[in-house]
Specification:
- By secondary structure, the chain is an alpha/beta fold.
- The protein folds into 8 domains: about 100 residues, PriA, 3(prime) DNA-binding domain (GIY-YIG endonuclease, 3-Layer(aba) Sandwich), CATH 3.40.1440.60; about 90 residues, Arc Repressor Mutant, subunit A; about 80 residues; about 180 residues, P-loop containing nucleotide triphosphate hydrolases (Rossmann fold, 3-Layer(aba) Sandwich); about 25 residues, no CATH class; about 170 residues, Rossmann fold, CATH 3.40.50.300; about 80 residues, no CATH class; about 90 residues, 2-Layer Sandwich (Alpha-Beta Plaits), CATH 3.30.70.
- It has 25 helices and 43 strands.
- A 7-stranded parallel beta sheet has the order 17-18-16-19-22-15-23, with helices on both faces.
- Helix 1 crosses helix 14, helix 7 packs across helix 8 and helix 21 packs parallel to helix 22.
- The chain is globular.
Length: about 900
């Protein structure tokens, strides 16, 4: 009897599963979770085996062609997770499976395009814009039709670079419908296309090794016969033999080279004499191999920490023994000791031979977090994030699959680590929007983590000082466990004494309990910038912030200036006609940068720096650049100026006011290079700068004990955006960034500059009052029917033609209204269609429809599959974090 398999194929936009049979030569090797190659239509595709089935759904099945990896690439819990998330997010199953494979291993079928003639045989007439073979006719003797501009670009690209896959052409010709243009070329026989399946681009890394091949006595006897007496070759080879005699097994040949000054040719001579055996050995690419750390012992817990720990410990043992255990919301103010709870949990998980995943919202936070875990669990921690090489991620994935790691730390992509016995999933700062994937398949890591933990029999802990409203509501309704850490624990007695001695300062701490000491959250001053303008102060810094910053610098302390914008100015504006310079692809205002470039150089402090720029105006969405015009391109007027405030301008203002101040910027431009986050943080922590100026990255969990001042230059940025979570984002980021101040015996303070000081988000953040904000925001959500009192689905259509985009949106809205009426879903509301807030991005016009109700996703689920798929060109997001 043949063995039948259900397989999810890795083909874009294919949401179903397919049945294949296993050929006899692969029987006993392939099971659930294995990566295989299968025929799919006229092409070959990768697929992941989901399960074995008794009977296929089709009369005739096709065979599995090959096994691509000897071990399963997905665990059974991951397969179940992919099924559940595909269903709940309205996404193709194959897209979820692709998320779980490391970069380079999972490959999609592509089309290879190739010219059928050489550049000498094919020329493009500039006058007639037609391809001309020798003889003047196209394939079949027919005269070739005139080439369009896109076709000429495609032909030129293939002439220059040779055969290219479709995705390579996409990168070379973005925002161009070159596929439609290629079809006439294929029909004429000028271009051929065929399906290809690229092989995996990642492989295990091996190194050449050498080992002594005979007893040491025999090697010693042969030393004089390895070269001419007195020659350098003889000395090198003798040194190599002596080195290998001291080693117990195979060693990397580079060690032998370093010890002897020899080379591979010397090893070949030794191998010919029978003295050395050459071989290969696999090595792991470990991004943590060179990390420096100091082993750390766990400090005693406070009463609040102990209470939280005991509840989580009970939940952990319940989950790992197969009993239902809800996720825990760990609500702790900044500096309350949440990370110590995570460390205790990991230690407990390791004791029962399970593994843990620790998620952080940003790559910027991983170095700091990883060091704490490596110090507690040396040799058992892995790191995953997108800035590692494909080889490093692949080897970490393989080590986790083999159970050689106990814990993996990273941003949301680390959630898909294939641990065989997962026992714990932690999301630190889980309120952060970076946990949401804004490209298909759309998902929030919070929801995936809760589901994954349940399926794997693991505990799930979500920690934050500012939980999102919907999650906090779940906890208050008893759906999740709720644990509170209300006190700031900034140090223990011994650490406090050493800090006081080093800083020569009087401590602002006071005893909490046991060895722990605490301090209050920093006082916050709200400055009304409207009053500053009335008083004649047109600076971006209020008088209060200027004076306080000067005092901090005079005392030799540090400050953070926060602004959630990059660049020097947020838009360029003509005062004569009102014209705003916008990106031609996105219709977004261009941002002015002063003498910056995307070309990285080396800073004297090893920091990423930038050379003088050719382009000064930049689109922060698509990367379009141009020079700053001298006159308005619309009216020709000369009064074209930059307006608004960005991080570069803040830095320039600080340097102008305080020439002696050493400044660092921490934003997208300064953190592009690998390791830049860690370098900047290291320099600032070691007092090689006085003022750190940055964007939202600064609000995320950084522990900087010498910072005594945090200033929010524009606290209300984003507060009035047309999105139901605008106030929540503002409150959260201000509360988080305020928590960076006063984390040492020096104390600290926070200054919020705003044009809306009366807004409840500003006032609640100023008083560190989460409950006040929660109650007001909850009432606002209840009135409008937004989460947690309803669910939201956002549908977005993109097209290069604005008329087509609008027509498609109007048509689908009418269809949806019909579905609502037919199915009697009176509780489901339709908002739109309307242009998106950012109406044009990347050259595409955007329209959206928002559905709001108890379960709007169920209205669409059946319309996403089958032959009639009205939503196949739409981006569908369930419970998105933004409606912009």
């Amino acid at each position: 009897m043949p063995i039948y398999l259900e397989i999810a194929v890795n083909v874009p936009q294919v949401s179903g599963v397919f049945h294949y049979h296993l050929p006899p030569e692969l029987e006993g090797q392939v099971g659930a979770g294995h990566l295989v190659e299968v025929p799919f239509g006229k092409q070959r595709a990768q697929g992941v085996v989901l399960r074995t089935i008794a009977e296929p759904a089709v009369a005739e099945t096709r065979p599995v062609l090959a096994l691509l990896d000897p071990g399963p690439v997905l665990t059974r819990a991951q397969i179940a997770l992919a099924h559940e998330m595909a269903e709940s997010t309205l996404s193709p199953l194959a897209a979820w499976i692709d998320l779980m494979l490391p970069p380079g291993l999972g490959q999609q079928a592509d089309t290879l395009y190739q010219l059928t003639v050489t550049g000498e045989q094919l020329s493009v007439s500039s006058e007639q814009s037609r391809p001309v073979r020798k003889g003047g006719t196209g394939a079949g003797g027919q005269k070739a039709a005139a080439l369009s501009e896109t076709q000429r670009r495609l032909v030129g690209l293939l002439q220059k670079r040779g055969p290219l896959r479709g995705r390579q052409i996409d990168q070379a010709m973005p925002h161009v419908d070159w596929r439609a243009a290629s079809r006439p070329l294929v029909r004429q026989g000028l271009v051929t296309c065929r399906s290809v399946l690229p092989p995996p681009t990642v492989q295990p890394k091996t190194v050449r090794t050498a080992q002594l091949a005979c007893p040491p006595e025999a090697a010693e006897a042969a030393l004089t016969d390895l070269g001419r007496a007195g020659s350098a070759a003889l000395a090198r080879r003798q040194a190599m033999v002596h080195f290998l005699m001291r080693e117990a097994g195979p060693v990397d040949v580079t060690w032998a080279y370093a010890e002897s000054g020899g080379s591979l040719s010397d090893l070949y001579v030794l191998a010919e004499r029978g003295l050395v055996t050459l071989g290969e050995s696999e090595v792991w690419r470990d991004p943590l191999a060179q990390i420096e750390f100091v082993p750390a012992e766990p400090p005693p817990l406070t009463r609040d920490q102990q209470t939280a720990w005991e509840a989580i410990q009970a939940g952990l043992h319940a989950a790992t023994s197969g009993q239902p255990s809800p996720p825990f919301l760990l609500h702790g103010v900044t500096g309350s000791g949440k990370t110590e709870i995570y460390l205790r949990m990991v230690d407990e998980v390791i004791k029962i031979s399970r593994q843990a995943i620790i998620l952080v919202p940003e790559i910027a936070l991983t170095p700091q977090t990883v060091r704490r875990f490596v110090a507690r669990f040396p040799g058992r921690v892995g790191l995953v994030h997108s800035r590692l090489s494909a080889g490093e991620r692949y080897d970490t994935w393989r080590r986790a699959r083999l159970g050689q790691l106990a814990v993996v730390v990273g941003p949301r992509s680390a959630l898909f680590t294939p641990f065989p016995n997962l026992g714990l999933v932690v999301l630190d700062e889980f309120h952060d929007d970076s946990y949401y994937q804004s490209e298909p398949p759309f998902y929030h890591a919070r929801e995936v983590a809760v589901t994954y933990a349940r399926l794997a029999g693991a505990a799930c802990v979500l920690g934050s000082a500012t939980p999102d409203i919907a999650s906090y509501y779940r906890a208050m309704q008893g759906q999740w466990g709720y644990l509170s850490l209300p006190s700031r624990i900034l140090a223990h007695e011994q650490a406090v004494r050493s800090q006081i001695e080093r800083l020569r300062a009087e401590s602002h701490y006071h005893p909490l309990e046991g060895q722990a000491e605490t301090t209050d959250l920093p006082p916050v001053t709200v400055v009304d910038m409207r009053q500053e303008l009335k008083a004649g102060n047109s600076s971006i810094f209020s008088r209060t912030l200027q004076a306080t910053l000067g005092q901090v610098l005079d005392r030799g302390q540090q400050a953070i200036l926060f602004l959630n914008r990059r660049g020097t100015a947020t838009y360029v504006f003509c005062r004569d006609c009102g014209h705003v310079l916008k990106c031609p692809h996105c219709d977004l205002p261009l941002t002015f940068h002063t003498q910056r470039s995307s070309v990285p150089t080396i800073h004297p402090l090893d920091l990423p720096a930038f050379q003088p720029a050719t382009f000064e105006l930049v689109c922060h969405h698509c990367g379009y650049q141009r020079k700053m015009p001298k006159t308005c391109p619309q009216c020709g007027g000369g009064r074209i100026r930059q307006y608004g405030t960005g991080t570069e301008r803040v830095e320039a203002e600080v340097q102008a006011l305080y020439p002696q101040a050493r400044t660092l910027r921490w934003d997208y431009e300064t953190t592009r290079l690998k390791g830049a986050h860690d370098i900047i943080l290291s320099h600032f922590s070691n007092q090689r700068a006085d003022v750190l100026i940055g964007t939202q990255m600064l609000a995320k969990g950084l522990d900087l004990p010498l910072v005594t001042l945090v200033g929010a230059v524009l606290a209300d940025v984003g507060l009035n955006m047309p999105d139901y979570r605008a106030a929540e984002r503002t409150f959260s980021v201000l509360t988080q960034v305020a928590g960076r101040a006063g984390r040492s015996p020096l104390g600290g303070q926070v200054i919020l500059q705003t044009f809306q000081p009366e807004h409840y988000a500003i006032q609640s953040a100023a008083h560190h009052d989460y409950q006040a904000f929660y109650q007001q925001e909850l009432a606002h959500r209840r009135k409008l029917g937004y989460p947690p009192f309803g669910r939201v689905v956002r549908l977005e259509y993109r097209h290069a033609d604005p008329v087509q985009a609008e027509a498609a949106a109007l048509s689908l809205a009418a269809q949806i209204q019909g579905w609502i009426s037919t199915e009697g879903r009176r509780a489901t509301e339709i908002v739109g269609p309307v242009p998106c807030f950012f109406a044009r991005l990347g050259g595409l016009y955007r329209w959206q429809i928002v559905l709001r109700g108890p379960d709007p996703a169920s209205l669409l689920r059946s319309r996403l599959s089958g032959n009639d798929r009205p939503l196949h060109d739409w981006r569908v997001e369930v419970d998105p974090v933004s409606l912009l």
